[in-house]
Amino acid sequence: MITHKRLADGFEYIEVKNSAAEAKVALQGAHLFHYVKAGEEPILWLSETSDFELGKAIRGGVPLCWPWFGFNEDKSLPQHGFARVMMWEFVGGDEVDARTTVLTFRLTNDEKTVQIWHYKFLLELKITISDKLTLELKTTNTDDKSFKISQALHTYFSVSHISEVAIKGLDKKPYLDALTWKNELQEGDISFHQEVDRVYQNVDGEIVLSDKKREIYIKNSGSSSVVVWNPWIEKTLRMSAMKPNAYESMVCIESANAFDDARVLKPHEVHVLGAVID
């Protein structure tokens, strides 16, 4: 079942329920903020104090960072681009079978986007909700000149406790430590004892989020970079829309085209960034 819902303040979202899973996607940012398999705990983390307010990004779920990841060279422009706070068009939903629902959202250039980013584009997000979660973010260059994008599916995963988490699949991968701006090489699995903010490159295999209560498998496509982030104690205290201990129950593993993995699209070219989460 696909239902179009609206909060009291006018905030709109699409709710999906089928026999395999449930999901909720805000029209602002085409932001998936809830996904849970039948009979299980939610896979996505959502801040208990997150804003569901027009113009403010939701803290949690899967924000879409586009057309740039992180800070722009022009520091007056919004971090992680503008797509996550723009109103998207809900193109429609397809109930493929009792266990599979596909939602499609669309964003195109308009007067607001051209003031921020001087290109014409078509951005489409397809979300497949079943016993696996599939995300496909498709960028089409509809301009007559090339443009460069960096982007991320900024996925927040719910964990039992950050001290009990290991991330597997990134051993021997080079990464940029965004806390020191030094290039490093991963040795073994990733565990957490302090703030972590890293951009891994040359990633080509499956990533496993291992927690005491379950394992989550992540397979990316159209991407060779992955971002791993946990703000830890001090940064969480300074962050809006997060409780002081929120860092304990979440970790971000972001499917990305970041830094060295940024992509240049010529006129009419298409790029699809994808992730399958199981």
Secondary structure layout:
Blueprint: E1 2-6, E2 12-17, E3 21-26, E4 31-37, E5 64-65, E6 89-97, E7 100-108, H1 111-116, E8 121-129, E9 133-141, E10 147-149, E11 151-153, E12 156-158, E13 166-168, E14 174-177, E15 182-185, E16 196-200, E17 207-211, E18 214-221, E19 225-230, H2 232-238, E20 250-257, E21 263-265, E22 270-277
Antiparallel strand pairs: 1-2, 2-3, 3-4, 5-11, 6-7, 7-8, 8-9, 9-22, 10-21, 11-20, 12-20, 13-17, 14-15, 14-16, 16-19, 17-18, 18-22, 19-20
How would you characterize the overall build of this protein?
With 278 residues, the protein is mainly beta. It has one domain: Distorted Sandwich (Beta-galactosidase, Chain A, domain 5), CATH 2.70.98. Helix content is 5%, strand content 45%. It has two helices and 22 strands. It has helices at residues 111-116, 232-238, and strands spanning 2-6, 12-17, 21-26, 31-37, 64-65, 89-97, 100-108, 121-129, 133-141, 147-149, 151-153, 156-158, 166-168, 174-177, 182-185, 196-200, 207-211, 214-221, 225-230, 250-257, 263-265, 270-277. Strands 5, 11, 12, 14, 15, 16, 19 and 20 form an eight-stranded antiparallel sheet that branches. It has an eight-stranded antiparallel sheet with strand order 6-7-8-9-22-18-17-13, with no helix packed on it. The protein has a four-stranded antiparallel sheet with strand order 1-2-3-4, with no helix packed on it. A hairpin with a 2-residue loop joins β6 (89-97) and β7 (100-108).
